Amino acid sequence: MATRLLKSWLRGGPIRSVTYRQNVLLGARRLSSSENIETQPLFGKILIANRGEIACRVISTAMKMGIRTVAVYSEPEANARHVEMADESYCLGPAPSAQSYLNVDRILEVIKESGAEAVHPGYGFLSENAGFAEAVEALGVRWVGPPAPAIRAMGDKIESKQIAIDAGINTIPGFQGVIKDEEVAVRIARDQVGYPVMIKASAGGGGKGMRIAYTDAEAREGF
User: Fold this and answer.
1) What is the dihedral sign for C-alpha 107, 21, 68, 57?
2) What SS3 class is residue 159?
3) Angle of helix 148-155 relative to helix 130-138, nearest 10 degrees?
4) DSSP letter for each residue of 108-147
5) pLDDT of 25 strictly over 80
6) Rounded mean pLDDT, 58-78
């Protein structure tokens, strides 16, 4: 349902069913009801700023739509499947992600070198980096994903929860704000929320930023 609602918003119309191969481009811009995404692709070449299965899926979909693809890779992945599938491929750098898939400057260089007209970030890596999305659009290249303000808002879990609350969406009861130190955390957990509590990092953490506490000692340690 969430996927359908997103697709509806991107089209600016009622919820409708769309095929999988249409999905890759829906984030590029709103579509009017008269446009046919299968016969009128929004661009001719797309760069996938990711690797592995997600890159393969995007490349496969783009191929079906007649869109040329650009893959990026780290040095050890020169023969990876997503590299072999793409029409073009560019090395980003050494194996560490910070020097390859998270290397914004190098990826922006590749975008310009390849002449890509759009960028699909996949998931993980730079997909939730609002600055990267803005940098891509500053080049006049389409960003296939949520707009930068939405990425920025959802990246801060306090702000994103407040947006949900303001929209009337049910949320898990708890403390809505920044907790400055472990003693404040203990006081809120014990006196306001009540044990057991989940302590969540406001900036995410990839699932590792959550701790369960049943006692004051665990609340201190979890914080």
Assistant:
1) positive
2) helix
3) 170
4) HHHHHHHT-SEEE--SSTTTT-HHHHHHHHHTTPEE-SS-
5) no
6) 96
Work out the mean pLDDT of the chain and round it to a whole number.
84
Q: In angstroms, rounded to a whole number, what is the distance separating the alpha carbons of residues 216 and 212?
A: 11
Rounded CA separation 6/29 (Å)? 12
Lowest mean pLDDT among 15-29, 43-57, 143-157: 15-29
Cα 89 to chain centroid, rounded: 22
- Which residues have CB under 8 Å from 157's CB, separation 6+? 200, 201, 202, 203, 204
Give the count of alpha carbons within 13 A of 24, CB side only.
Answer: 29
Contact 10, 37 (CB under 8 A): no
Task: Identify the three-state secondary structure at position 27.
Answer: coil
Say whether 157 sits in a helix, a strand or coil.
Answer: helix
Distance CA 141, CA 135 (A): 9
